[in-house]
Amino acid sequence: MAIFSSSSTRLVVQGITGRDGSFHTRETMAYGTPVVAGVTPGKGGEIFIGPGDLTTPIYNSMDQAVSETDANTSLIFVPPAFAAGAIMEAAESGVDLVVAITEGVPVQDMVRAHAFARDRGVRVLGPNCPGLISPGKAKIGILPGHIVTEGPIGLVSRSGTLTYESVHQLTAMGLGQTTCVGIGGDPLIGTNFIDCLSAFESDQETEAIVMIGEIGGTDEQEAAEYISGDMSKPVVGFIAGQTAPPGRRMGHAGAIISGSSGTAAEKIKAFEDNGVGVANRPADIVGLVQEVLS
Amino acid sequence: MDLHEYQAKECFRTAGIPVPPGKIARTPEQAEAIAMEYGGNVVVKAQVHSGGRGKAGGVKLAVDPADARKHAQNILGLEIKGLTVEKVLVTPTEEIDTEAYLGVLIDRSSQAPIFIVSAAGGIDIEEVAETRPDEVRRFVVDPRHGLLPHQAFWLADFLYDDPELIKQTAKIIGQLYEAFTNTGASMAEINPLITTPEGKVKAIDAKMSIDENELFRRPDIASLRDTSAEPKAETLAREAGLSFVKLDGEVGCCVNGAGLAMATMDLVKYYGGEPANFLDIGGSSNPDKVASALQIIASDPNVKSILFNIFGGITRCDDVANGIIEALSRIEIRAPIVIRLTGTNEELALEILQNAGFSAYASMDDVVEEAVRLARA
């Protein structure tokens, strides 16, 4: 099992002909996830050449792509100015899941796009996220396939490289993963910690969850309450940004302490108050996972 | 990107909000001349990106032009929370009956703009919301429809009893929303919104923050950025396409990924050091980027050691290692450099670096510990 993806994932890539889009589409195809269509307006009718002898047809619109190929998941590499439009187009096309990798989407655009997708019951992951990977089953995004391995750990994170770092350490200790999800570093994201925790709670193969948060907002605090109130599976937490100064954006648009709210200390306290183990440093995550599993 | 008060007021004026006139002075003489123009009774206000200007002595009332010059003299060059005042806004003094708070910002949890109003104006709204929640009214705007007139009235009605004041305020609320959406703001605030003895509602202070992601399509707003109000290293980093925040410590950090960069800073602290900066170099092995990053970090005289922490996921570690070596061959850095590379092709990368004479590690803890030791040596 895995969350938000499965062996029946049929992917359409929006922005397939761009630099990042084409590179990661090839990686995704090489991982074995079926990319059934690509969309680049104006390039409909062309063929995208993948690795080996894999190819995929390119369409002008999501509507065409989905009706021709029955794609059920969209992966977006469209530039920031057009990304919110691409998310709304995807949400209207009939796919169930939209994974938006694009970084730098204007936040007022995302206010509209999130409302649009919510109204249509379509799940959005991101934007400004690395996507997700279910080892051996599906890769939807840019998480490198070769650092993950199958196993019982669910991982959810706001950061890409911290995901890599933790997965790498877990894998090195023989702890594989069911699904690793990067929910994104923006202030407004579609799928949040609680959505992922709840999916991992229902996933039969997931035995423990690693949750990597950072400064900014209150998602981690709400997740901590959810864990103690609604979850039976153990969760191990880590929060980045204990040394971040207030009022400054730390790379991610959403990683900012506003006034006195959204600090690492506040989030760590929320975890501790709700009985969730928190690692002091990334190297301690694996030890805590081993503890909760035994 | 934060706007200065005078810039935010200009955006408000464009939207039709009643804002008293005002002009910028860079010298005491200019302040005196502007005060003369306004008849002498003026407020001299420091233009810096920091709250608490009043408490820091950055806002003064003047009774005549000479007084305005004296105040400008004291305020210009004043340091407020580490920022030097280079400009003052000189604006006529207003007679104030009441002060209220009016703001709109992007709310993370409702994923929509939220208005906040309170009759307790001129003070810290966060504190009012915390200690006296009854004195605050909020309204989340439905992004499908925008702010509707009756919703603006409902907000204004919370502030005043006088129908005339409510009417004026509802109009201002609509105009504030227009200024907010037209500039791609993440926050716009009037604190205080005043009423005058003549029964007029006016914005006598203005604060706006623009979403950085909007700037590419709003060159007019982007041009309002005041690079003199930020450390030079941050301007250079932005021009080089690096995400950088200057801090006060002695361990320079060069990391790929924002989350890993924050975790690295935290680990520096964990091992008894202080990070000199936040820097996300991105996933690239481009030697130009590495060289700019190193130059920016090394230009900080506090930096005693520099650490690289790179996870090669998509980028291969050996490419990154070669990029670092090439960058280092172009520029001279006096501080000792320690490098940690892990991920794809890590063994190859460590060998390349060690052969080139660098201290290279595979563990994040080891490299941070060593960088802190070197900084303290």
Based on the model shown, name its key terms.
heterodimer; A: 294 residues; alpha/beta; Rossmann fold; 2 domains; 7-stranded mixed sheet; 9 helices; globular; B: 377 residues; alpha+beta; Dna Ligase, domain 1; D-amino Acid Aminotransferase, Chain A, domain 1; 3 domains; 6-stranded antiparallel sheet; 38% helix; 24% strand
How would you describe this structure to a colleague?
The complex is a heterodimer of chains A (294) and B (377). With 294 residues, chain A is of the alpha/beta class. Chain A folds into 2 domains: 11-125, Rossmann fold; 144-293, 3-Layer(aba) Sandwich (Rossmann fold). In chain A, 35% of the residues lie in helices and 22% in strands. Chain A is built from 9 helices and 14 strands. In chain A, the strands form 2 sheets. In chain A, strands 3-4-2-1-5-6-7 form a 7-stranded mixed sheet, sandwiched between helices. The two termini of chain A are 22 Å apart. Chain B has 377 residues and is α+β, with helices and mostly antiparallel strands. Chain B has 3 domains: 21-92, ATP-grasp fold, A domain (Dna Ligase, domain 1), CATH 3.30.1490; 98-222, D-amino Acid Aminotransferase, Chain A, domain 1; 231-376, Succinyl-CoA synthetase domains (Rossmann fold), CATH 3.40.50. Helix content of chain B is 38%, strand content 24%. Chain B has 13 helices and 18 strands. Chain B has helices at residues 5-15, 28-37, 65-75, 125-131, 149-157, 163-183, 219-222, 232-239, 258-270, 287-298, 317-330, 346-355, 364-376, and strands at 23-25, 42-46, 59-62, 79-80, 83-84, 88-92, 98-107, 112-118, 136-140, 185-195, 201-203, 207-210, 243-246, 251-255, 277-280, 305-312, 337-343, 359-361. Chain B starts with a helix and ends with a helix. The mean pLDDT of chain B is 92. Chains A and B meet through helix 4 and helix 5 of A and helix 9 of B.
